[in-house]
Each structure stands twice: as C-alpha cells, then as structure tokens.
Amino acid sequence: MLRSKSSVTSDRLRSTRGLTSEVIIACQYVAGTDNCASGSETGTPMTIEALITAEFERVAQEQNKTLAALLPETMLIASGLDSLCIAIIVARLEDALGTDPFTSSEEVDFPVTFGDFVKFYENAASK
Q: Residue 43: which residues within 8 A CB-CB, separation 6 or more?
C-alpha cells in the first residue's frame, strides 16, 4: 500500500517529538499545504478539535452534504453526514493522527455528539 508523504513524515515526527508534531502534520494533511495555522495570520498549530472540524467540513463539501453547526451538543446523526462520511473522517483522522480509537483493545462507548467525538480523539491522543 502506498503511503502519502504526510503520513510518512508524521510517523517520523511522532516517534521523536510527540503529539504537538502530530497535530502540526495533521494540519498540513487536512489543509493539503505546508501552512499549518488555524488562522493564516496566527501561526498557531491546529488543535485536535480544529482538525476534526476541518475534516467534517471537507468531507461534507466533497460528498455534497449540508453540514449542521458543529456544536458540542450536535448529535452526529443530525450533523448532516451519513455513515460513509463518518467512516471517511475516521480513516483520515487515523492517517493524520496515527490512532483509531474505535479499534482500541478496550471496550469503548461510541460517541453520540460532536463533543463526544472530539473528546474521544483527544483522549486517544493523550494515551
């Protein structure tokens, strides 16, 4: 299987620098650019929540879906995305962050709201 340059770079940085580097590379992966800022003027690396939000927006646009406001209490089922869209997001987040919390060996409670989904990834990244 061919791996993207971003994925290979992320693997290298993850092994030497930790989560901050993962988030920076993930930002580049999502944005498709070397500019890793949540706002181009700030130069601040993307948070996991910002990365997830960007992926939701990207997939909604690619799949021609109308995305609901992504508030912590927004139910995933009411987000405007279907299960295929969520699967695409999960796959891309695994590539970007190097983790898939859905396949952990622990028993997991699947996220119901957007806020749950973000916390799910934040918790997985902190392990």
A: 37
